[in-house]
Amino acid sequence: MQISVQKTSQLKPKPDQGKLGFGTNFTDHMFNMDYNPDQGWHNPRIEPYAPLSLDPATMVLHYGQGIFEGMKAYRTEQDNLQLFRPMENFRRMNYSAQKLCMPQIDEAFALKALKQLLAVEKDWVPQEPGTSLYIRPTMIATDPFLGVKASQTYRFFIILSPVGAYYAEGFNPIKIMVTRDHVRAVRGGVGDTKTLGNYAASLLAGEKAHTAGYTQVLWLDGVEQQYVEEVGAMNIFFVIDNEVITPALSGSILPGITRKSVLQLAEHWGIKAIERKIKIDEIVQAHQSGQLTEIFGAGTAAVISPVGELKYEDKILKIGEGKVGPVSQKLFDAIINIQYGRSEDTLNWIEQVHG
Ligand SMILES: *Cc1c(COP(=O)(O)O)cnc(C)c1O
């Protein structure tokens, strides 16, 4: 399929790189393509960034049949643009699509379209330390129809947003809180996909945590409410007795690409890294016995997010005296050095973008 390109005649002013924040500025162009059962995916195009015009009956607006991905493009010190494991994102998007009765995309074509869009928008990739261009591939159901069934037609689009350094004032340990009033996902559900409703369903618990002075919710499993699942929109890791432990993918946990990278790096370094079920009570006990030395979240936005405090019922666990632990620091440095091209890509995680 040939991607058509229509450029805008009015470029937006670029935002101040020191004040980017997250997800508020969008670039000049976007990628769009459409799906119907007769033509499959068709009309791939790069065109000016613009609002979508949707019939009020459009199915995604009513039943949430929509999925997305999140990844970043990085500018290296040599002024090259690069992506971190992008095929993993498109593969996961197809996994989400299949679970939501949505059509598959051609993963290699999606990467080609993304690279072409990035070549058009290369000046939007910021260069200040820690900044990047956030990439949001999205697929939505577009039939104007109010019956509950899978849509026949879909739109796939990619938008881009320059984002600031997550740790502009240094690596700050976050405070997290276990909730028992809410669950994020259940066995057999869609917790392992990046689908719209999962995020809407997490808002109330998130707001309650904020009110209580915590940054994120630590979710327990939806059935027994005993096993740790993940934190906010990150996977969770514990360092207990010098072993790195993360909950095994249970079907209700999002299979993070940062999570996978952490496990692969730990293995590469000869650190014992284990995926298994882990009870919240085990965490409390490991803290009491002094064996729990670090907790950290892992996700594209922050890469590694050290946890300095964990609240569970009436217990408050302080971890690492407000400092960043050595495993968290080593993982953070290793991953960002690969992403920004400062260390050799020995694990083959980098995809170059040629402007
Ligand atoms: C996206 C996401 C993650 C992290 O995945 P990455 O691929 O590492 O960015 C973890 N949990 C949830 C719920 C997510 O949406």
Question: Which key phrases capture this entry?
Answer:
single chain; 355 residues; alpha+beta; D-amino Acid Aminotransferase, Chain A, domain 1; D-amino Acid Aminotransferase, Chain A, domain 2; 2 domains; 9-stranded mixed β-sheet; 6-stranded mixed barrel; 23% helix; binds pyridoxal-5'-phosphate
Write a brief structural summary.
The chain is α+β, with helices and mostly antiparallel strands and 355 residues long. It is 23% helix and 30% strand. The chain has helices at 59-63, 86-99, 107-120, 196-200, 203-211, 257-269, 280-288, 326-339; strands at residues 4-5, 29-36, 40-48, 66-68, 71-75, 81-84, 132-141, 154-163, 174-178, 216-220, 228-231, 234-240, 243-247, 273-276, 292-299, 303-312, 315-318, 350-353.
Second-tier CATH architecture of the largest domain: Alpha-Beta Barrel
Broad structural category: alpha+beta
Output the CATH topology of the largest domain: D-amino Acid Aminotransferase, Chain A, domain 2
Distance between the termini: 20 Å
Q: What order do the SSEs take from the amino end to the carboxyl end, as H and E?
A: EEEHEEEHHEEEHHEEEEHEHEEEHE
**Beta-strand content bin:** 25-35%
Helix count? 8
CATH class of the largest domain: Alpha Beta
Helix content: 10-25%
What does this protein look like?
It is a single chain. This protein is α+β, with helices and mostly antiparallel strands and 355 residues long. The protein folds into two domains: 4-163, Aminotransferase class 4, branched-chain amino acid transferase, N-terminal domain (D-amino Acid Aminotransferase, Chain A, domain 1, 2-Layer Sandwich); 174-339, D-amino Acid Aminotransferase, Chain A, domain 2, CATH 3.20.10. Helices cover 23% and strands 30% of the residues. It is built from eight helices and 18 strands. It has helices at residues 59-63, 86-99, 107-120, 196-200, 203-211, 257-269, 280-288, 326-339, and strands at 4-5, 29-36, 40-48, 66-68, 71-75, 81-84, 132-141, 154-163, 174-178, 216-220, 228-231, 234-240, 243-247, 273-276, 292-299, 303-312, 315-318, 350-353. The strands form two sheets. Strands 1, 2, 3, 4, 5, 6, 7, 8 and 18 form a nine-stranded mixed sheet that branches. It has a six-stranded mixed β-barrel with strand order 9-10-11-12-15-16, surrounded by four helices. β12 and β13 (243-247) form a beta hairpin. The radius of gyration is 21 Å and the shape is globular. The chain starts with a strand and ends with a strand. The mean pLDDT is 96. Residues 70, 194, 230, 233-235, 254, 256-259, 299-300 line the site of pyridoxal-5'-phosphate.
